[in-house]
Amino acid sequence: MTADALPHFTHYIDGQDVPPATGSYFETQNPFSGEAWAMVARGDAADVDRAVKAAHKAFESGPWSEMSATRRGEILFRLSELLAQNAAALAEVEMRDNGKLAAEVTSQVRYVADYFRYYAGLADKVESHVIPTDKKGVTCFTRYEAKGVVAIITPWNSPLTLTSWKLAPALAAGCTAVIKPSEFTSPSAVLFARLFKEAGFPDGVVNVVTGLGAEAGEPLVTHPLVAHVGFTGGELAGQKIYEAAARGLKTVTLELGGKSPNIVFDDADLDQAVKGVVSGIFAAAGQTCIAGSRLLVQASIHDAFVERLIDFVKDARLGDPADPQTRIGPIATRPQFDKILGYLDIARAEGARCVLGGRARPDLGAGWFVEPTIFTGVNNGMRIAQEEVFGPVLSVIPFEDEADAIRIGNDVQYGLAAGVWTQSLHRAMLMSSKLRAGTVWINNYRATSFTTPFGGYKRSGIGRESGVEAIKEYLETKSVWISTDLDVPNPFVRR
């Protein structure tokens, strides 16, 4: 199809579809076919300025600013119902854009409705406190007030899920938002935003500007009317956003990379551990920040466990993500596909042994497929063990005992997540306390919930998403002092 014949997705600003100021669009590709399937508005600073000003107006003087927290919650609840009704359609667009399996992406989008339902209930549960002080005749209490306009910048691997992690608590807090989705997966964000008007949100509360990072993302982060930036993505991009936000003294939440250890002890239920390891690295073709990409196996069971793992994975079917029989879909973008292939070469050059996979699969068509790959003979100093591959590539590292597992597990610059497989309660508690990670799973992997804080240590990020803690990221704390003493002291007389 020619570019003119493809569907065109505009920005969504102030409650309406808005074409890009320059009139420019760019292609978005289907990773299964490798072909363009839609055209997306190529936004710039002018589009960002229009969107931010609409959000700022809605925050400062529109009906959103005058609305009670209970009323905000009612509208958020209505949105959750619309999301549940439209989950299949949104999931189909997301699958076409990033190649994630239909079953998984449909489940994720349905769960997005649960996120908004949770924060709908939390909107009017943010409680202030009366604080005892050491000052006589004075009462002090706190107020929690929305920060203002929030910039939300999201990646291509789970677009609507990771948008909801930021947007739901921000709206519950009373903020307004401008979303800049990944240039690789923008259409679902535009369709998503249209539901807000149907749910009853005032115009300007939620806006979407699509485009490239340098052309739309950077002007959004640096816009003087943006108060907070929420970002999920790569470490280097996160660092640049943090630096740009710092120049405007904006607050940030950053959910960045990971190189998470999935640790299997010799007392574990090995069949269950195999399933947990596979879920940790080969679900979503390994394109997840919490991927358990380092498998630490106790030396006494190393060979037997790797053999079980290979037997479980070797027949996993790669193919069309819409086919229910497919177990592993394509890589979401061509640049990421090339990056993964580069890491396969790096691993071999470092001396790692490829015991499964290790190739691209051009026989599956024009899409971007990489076989599920397992490397043994890996030591934790290798690049394949230290750097985030973001693909279906597993590094297996042996360890001797708990102390060795803790040392290896923590010996990376990241600290997003970790998994532990053991039947010992003592060992489970020890590992959960010693591993430097924001989430530790014991005898499970990759579980998340709208009720539970999520975020990382070290270079895996700043702040927390989900749960009660997330709404605090979008609130300012104000202290109010009220004097009950009618006799204001003479300031020139020392008391």
From TrEMBL:
<dbReference type="InterPro" id="IPR015590">
    <property type="entry name" value="Aldehyde_DH_dom"/>
</dbReference>
<dbReference type="InterPro" id="IPR016162">
    <property type="entry name" value="Ald_DH_N"/>
</dbReference>
<dbReference type="InterPro" id="IPR016163">
    <property type="entry name" value="Ald_DH_C"/>
</dbReference>
<dbReference type="InterPro" id="IPR016161">
    <property type="entry name" value="Ald_DH/histidinol_DH"/>
</dbReference>
<dbReference type="InterPro" id="IPR029510">
    <property type="entry name" value="Ald_DH_CS_GLU"/>
</dbReference>
<dbReference type="Pfam" id="PF00171">
    <property type="entry name" value="Aldedh"/>
</dbReference>
<comment type="similarity">
    <text>Belongs to the aldehyde dehydrogenase family.</text>
</comment>
<dbReference type="InterPro" id="IPR016160">
    <property type="entry name" value="Ald_DH_CS_CYS"/>
</dbReference>
<feature type="domain" description="Aldehyde dehydrogenase">
    <location>
        <begin position="24"/>
        <end position="480"/>
    </location>
</feature>
<feature type="active site">
    <location>
        <position position="255"/>
    </location>
</feature>
<protein>
    <submittedName>
        <fullName>Aldehyde dehydrogenase</fullName>
    </submittedName>
</protein>
<keyword id="KW-0560">Oxidoreductase</keyword>
